[in-house]
Amino acid sequence: MIPLDLMAPLMFGGLVVFMLIGFPVTFSLAAVGLFFGFIAIESGYFDFALLQALPERVFGIISNDTLLAIPFFTLMGAILERCGLAEDLLDGLGQLFGPIPGGLGYAVIIVGAILGAITGTVAASVIAMGLISLPVMMRYGYDQRFATGVIAASGTITQLIPPSLVLIVLADVLGKSVGDMYAGAWGPSVVQVLLFAGYVLLVSLVKPQWVPGIPKSSRTLHGWPLIKKCLWGIVPSAVLIFLVLGTIFLGLATPTEAGAMGTVGAIGLAVVHHPELSRHGRVAGWIALVAITVICVPASLMLADEWMPAVAGAARGFFEKLRAPLFVVFYIGLGVMMWEGVRITKLRSLIWQASQNTMRITAMVLFILIGSTIFVLVFRGVNGDPFIEHLLSHLPGGVTGFLIFVNVFVFFLAFFLDFFEIAFIIIPLLAPVAAKLGIDLIWFGVLLCVNMQTSFMHPPFGFALFYLRSIAPKEIKSSAIYWGAIPWVVLQLIMVAIVIVWPGLVTFMLDKPSGVDPNTVKIELPQTEFQKDQEQNEKDGEETVPDFSTPKK
User: What is the DSSP letter of 102?
Assistant: First the structure.
């Protein structure tokens, strides 16, 4: 018989062995959980009734409203990534920044941030930018290590920039709202983009031969045509993301509803952007997109209530009156637009491929979550939670020691595990300890999200490096990809330190003052019959003596 004190560490060790062998993670989790579950039942550590909770837990996962947002955001990103917006944006910004040293590096970072916001998956961002920008950077003499490193690193920003799939999963695991998790991630997202841009600037000053400017003869656009192309790449995507995230931040829509709206907008942009679209189809597409934008305007006007309440209220009332006719216009335009999408073979293929990709990612997430549920249920049944809590809460250094250990632990786990696996297996074990130590779970989740970005950049196991290797030209050596990733991993670790030292970077959008002076708050309760009699007698100059002998009828 295995002693109860050894069951939890043996379960964790067994899981590590299975994954090192290369067995699929979801089946490793389920197999280890059930194996040790039957041992625990035979040993009398818990009853079989505990495992009877599994069907209900699985049903709870499938019907989880928060997780329903994953397929919508995945489909939205897959459509936008394939519709050509990224190519136009990267070409426009490449020519805009091209003349300065490191200009293509700046363009890749900006496009990585925008593409990350609209795709939500690292694979899509890295592959899209690798196919588009890597040949151009090689053509103009960029250093191989720098070029591959900046593409892989910019693709991993996807994990942190809302509406990231990782943030949705973390919000569900930590029991927090997706809107709060998105709000907390904005500060670190912006700082990380600036940190990456600062490194490009440093390289352009120290090693300008690594990042030469594009010669004037190779720049085909100038003036307004160049600005127009850049705006066409940025503005539609930015408006779509603003509408999607705005409704979540303001609590006017659930993440699932916002994701569905974003998917409709993505299909509209894909159709409108397609070169084979007929004139009436393009007009109908723009009408539908403008209509859905105006429908969502009242949500954004809520932000102006604090500064211009009268103007915001009047504008909201005006747009609310237009809501019903605008919905009719939207559906008519959407119908014409969808007909055009069916008519054009390439658009049908685009939507079909995006749907297949969405199905694969959603199935992967759900199966990993089901496997982790089996593992965690048995792990807690053999006193795994007290084991983890005792192990982590007695570390030297208190909260600081806990944070250092957790970040080092997650950093090394990322060599072997995907971020979904870390989120579903490890974080449910760490979150109760963090809450007991008084750590804000939104801040804790964003911190771990920044750390888990490194899981895609670790040489030689980083998935972003594998994605880049799969599409990179043969003349680019694998060693260049691996060495090129190291400076960017260091930058990501610096970002982890910044979030630890400066927690306000995450919480500044969450710690909003209420705008209410507590001294002015007055709570009035309804008066009792005795208080009314006492008040009347005080006016009459008599003393009130309560009479409890006969109750009032």
Answer: T
DSSP string computed for 418-482: -HHHHHHHTHHHHHHHHHHTT--HHHHHHHHHHHHGGGGT-TTT-HHHHHHHHHS-TTS-HHHHH
Contact 304/312 with Cβ under 8 angstroms? yes
Q: How far is CA 548 from CA 22, 378, 472, in A?
A: 80, 60, 91
Q: What residue type is assigned to position 534 of the chain?
A: Q
Q: Which residues lie closer than 8 Å to 272 by C-beta, 6 or more apart?
A: 282, 285, 286, 289, 337
Structure token digits, residue 218: 């190779």
CA distances from 502 to 48, 94, 99, 225, 401 (A): 47, 34, 36, 42, 17
Q: Which residues contact 136 (CB under 8 A, 6 or more apart)?
A: 94, 104
Q: Are 382 and 34 in contact (CB under 8 A)?
A: no
Task: Output the CA angle 347-113-102, nearest 5 degrees.
Answer: 110
Q: Report yes or no: 451 and 156 within 8 Å, Cβ to Cβ.
A: no
Per-residue pLDDT of the chain (553 residues; tens, 9 = 90+): 678 778 888 887 887 787 777 677 778 888 888 888 888 888 888 778 788 878 888 887 777 777 777 788 778 777 776 776 767 777 777 777 777 888 888 888 888 887 776 666 676 677 777 777 788 788 888 888 898 888 888 888 877 887 777 788 888 888 888 888 888 888 898 899 999 999 999 999 998 888 888 777 766 767 777 787 777 777 777 777 777 776 666 666 677 777 777 777 777 777 777 666 666 666 766 676 666 666 665 555 555 455 555 655 665 566 666 666 666 666 666 667 666 666 666 777 777 888 887 888 788 778 878 888 888 888 888 887 777 777 777 777 778 888 888 888 888 777 766 677 777 778 888 888 888 888 889 999 999 888 888 777 777 667 778 778 877 877 888 888 888 888 998 998 899 899 988 888 888 877 554 444 445 545 555 555 555 666 666 666 655 455 545 554 4
Supply the pTM of this predicted model. Answer: 0.72
DSSP letter for each residue of 283-318: HHHHHHHHHHHHHTHHHHHGGGTTT-HHHHHHHHHH
